[in-house]
Structure formats: structure tokens, C-alpha cells
Amino acid sequence: MPPARRGWLPLLTGVAVAAAVTTVTSVPARLKWPNDVLAGEAKLAGILAEAAGDAIVVGIGLNVSTDPAELSRLPAGPGALPATSLPATSLRAAGATALNREKLLLAILTGFERRYQAWRRAGGDPDRSGLRPEYVSRSATIGRTVRAELPGGQALSGPAAGVDSDGRLLVRVSSGAEVPVAAADVVHLR
């Protein structure tokens, strides 16, 4: 896989998770660039992808049956979510019609495998593999005004215009230019 295209791996994973959640539980899941799965305006799952030599290890944290009362008591000390984070939710709290973990896991893994193989066969091309259109259709970020808090304390704001061929979020700034963002904490603005 071309190194520049590896940024699509967490996005591909998010598509697989959101599709499986929606299909198996009837909870309409959406994607917040680059690595969150949402139910409404709350975070249902997070995805982490890290390089380990030539491999990329992907981890998924999905809140399945956490009780809504427990979600409101998340810790506020070290390791707590930053103040800009979305509130947490779970499939149970979001009104899932079914909580069969085996069926959900199988749907996630099967969906990941199918999308990964198509993406790989297409040489990492998100359009030829069908990945970019599917990501865009599930995105809760594209089309919204966002603030991208970049490493080093910089920030930029504007409408999220799309995702480029390397998986970077395109933010349209006041000049009209679309600035690609590879790493940032993205906040959806109202």
C-alpha cells in the first residue's frame, strides 16, 4: 500500500463499524473524522491505528451495553476526556434493538475484510474501491463547520468540504482554499 494512502485505514475501519452497528442494532451510526463513530451527537466508538514497522495495528473501542447512568459518571481526573470531546454513549443508551455481541463483532470483521480487500485490490485508491463515496455518505463531519485544532496550538475553522485521496480532511478557509488536515482534533461547530 502506498504510504500516503494509509491514512484511509482508520476511515475504512470506521465505515465497517458504522455499517455493522446500523445493520445489526438499528442505531444509525455516523462518522466524525478521523476516528470516531457517533450515535446522534455522542461518541459511540473510537478507532486507533498505529504503525508498527511495516504493519498497521488497528484498535476499536465500542461502547455496547454501558448503562446511561454510568456514562454520566465518567472520570474527571487524569486520563479523562478533554473538555472539547463529545459526550459518550453506548448502543444500549442509543436504543439498540439488539445487543448480540457475537453478531456485531462478526459484522464488523466481515465488513472490514470486504472493504480492506477491495481497497487493497485498488492499490489504496479510495474512489476505485468505493471507499470514499461510502465514507462521505456516512460522514457527520463533511458539510459541517468545524474547528481543526492542529498540533502546535494552531487552529483553523471553516466548512469541512471533503476528504482527499490520502484520507485528509479538507477544510475550506475564508480565502476559499481547501486546506488538507492530516492530524487534528476536529470539533463540530454549531
Question: What is the topological layout?
Answer:
Layout: H1 8-25, E1 29-32, E2 36-39, E3 42-52, E4 55-62, H2 68-71, H3 101-121, H4 131-138, E5 145-149, E6 155-163, E7 169-172, E8 178-181, E9 185-188
Highlighted features:
4 helices; alpha+beta; 9 strands; globular; four-stranded antiparallel beta sheet; 190 residues; five-stranded antiparallel beta sheet
Task: Describe, in plain words, how this protein is organized in 3D.
The chain has 190 residues and is an alpha+beta fold. It is built from four helices and nine strands; from the N terminus they run H-E-E-E-E-H-H-H-E-E-E-E-E. It has helices at 8-25, 68-71, 101-121, 131-138; strands at 29-32, 36-39, 42-52, 55-62, 145-149, 155-163, 169-172, 178-181, 185-188. The strands form two sheets. It has a five-stranded antiparallel β-sheet, with no helix packed on it. A four-stranded antiparallel β-sheet has the order 1-2-3-4, covered by helices on one side. A hairpin with a 3-residue loop joins strand 1 (29-32) and strand 2 (36-39). Helix 1 (8-25) crosses helix 4 (131-138). The protein is globular and about 45 Å long. The N and C termini lie far apart (37 Å).
User: How many β-strand stretches?
Assistant: 9
Structural class: alpha+beta
**Radius of gyration, taken over Cα atoms and rounded to an integer in Å:** 17 Å
Task: List unreliable stretches of 5+ residues.
Answer: 76-84
Largest sheet: 5 strands, antiparallel
* Percent of residues in beta strands: 25-35%
Shape annotation: globular
Mean pLDDT reading? 90
Q: H/E order of the elements? A: HEEEEHHHEEEEE
The N- to C-terminal Cα distance equals 37 Å
Helix percentage: 25-40%
Q: List the strand order in the largest sheet.
A: 8-7-6-5-9
Please, how many helices? 4
